[in-house]
Write a structure and sequence with these properties.
Blueprint lengths: L14 H24 L23 E5 L5 E3 L2 E3 L1 H14 L4 E6 L5 H14 L3 E4 L11
Parallel strand pairs: 1-4, 4-5
Antiparallel strand pairs: 1-2, 2-3
Length: about 140
């Protein structure tokens, strides 16, 4: 009895799925980079701290920017203290340990920082950190 043995043609390297995956990864990194970039308002001059080290940022962390005049900005949108408390309350309902980073301008009056902290506390936020800059190196003579 004679069997007909046909071998399947060799499987070639599929390039289309590889390209799809690469473009999806590229889109993901572009979108996440844009989201973190929006949180850093450039008009704020952070106070410098010589001690301490940079803390790894959490993905869920909300950044509250406080300008020198006391205005509050989150995600490039201005907020009043009441709106801030409402927004933080909504975030706490979703995540009980919602992290918040306060970025206050070095010329901001202390009372504005305290007002923001009080409103965050009333909303149930307990995980608060503060952003500082690195001291500028003095030129060597």
């Amino acid at each position: 009895m004679k069997f007909n043995t046909q071998q399947a043609p060799p499987v070639g390297f599929q390039l289309a799925p590889m390209i799809d995956i690469i473009f999806l990864l590229l889109a993901f990194f572009i979108v996440t980079y844009q989201m973190t970039d929006n949180e850093k308002v450039m008009e704020i001059s952070l106070p410098a701290a010589s001690e301490g080290k940079a803390k790894q940022r959490d993905n869920l962390e909300k950044v509250i920017n406080i300008h020198a005049d006391g205005s509050i900005v989150i995600d490039q949108k201005p907020y009043t203290l009441d709106e801030l408390q409402e927004k933080m309350g909504n975030l706490v309902r979703v995540n009980k340990s919602q992290p918040v980073r306060v970025r206050g301008d070095e010329k901001t009056e202390y009372k504005h920082i305290v007002d923001v902290i009080n409103r965050c506390s009333r909303a149930g936020i307990w995980n608060i950190s503060f952003a500082t800059g690195t001291p500028k190196k003095k030129p060597e003579n």
